[in-house]
Amino acid sequence: MMKRRVVKPATERKAEIVDCALALFLTKGYAATTIADILARTRLSKGAFYHHFASKEDVLEAAMEHLVGAGIAAMRDVVDDEHLNEVARLERLFVRFAEWQNEINLDAINVDMLKPENAALSLRIKTSIDRAVVPVFSRIIERGTRSGEFDAPDPELAAEMLLFVSSAREPAVTNILKMAARGQIDDAMKLAEQQLAVQSKMMDRILGLPPDSIDLTKTKISQIRITALVAATRKAKTKRKA
After folding, report:
1. Model pTM?
2. Quick check: is 4 in a domain?
């Protein structure tokens, strides 16, 4: 007797595909994961997969939206901490986000998104992430503006600009990663610190703060991110050789 196929609501089935694909992306890496891998893990037919998603890229976009939502929820204690002023809150969020990326091994995906051939996909992912993150930053900036800590007449625009400044560093991040992969760790750290110093100054200006109000170099983000990115890159190279 043939086993009857379990019919699930479309939303539940899509969530199942996203969860399985995300687990693969975070262990194997995005590039190394195939649709066949996803089908094997979900035990779905190819037709069932393409009924919900047009491509692996579409699955990644949905997975990242889900992941960032979970990340924001995990940082809720920082967002709601009444003992922090808004400058300290922003700095703490940048650090927590870097730590969170390491905890879930997000660099298994990030290292692939830094490749030139994935530029268009990387932009899609960034856009979906911004949709989730901008409201969080907007609320913080709005609170800081009401209290007189910031001078940002349009909190949403200010939030978008903060994220743009951060993402504009991607070419530098690629160079930093290449230097670190060649063993030039000290040089990579130095360049990363320079980039963070510039980003800090831009954040001051966007938020109408006095110079040197924000200093991301003191947060040790460089050490956190470079160490993790290098580890992810080496792991990806080892898998390709195997």
Report:
1. 0.78
2. no
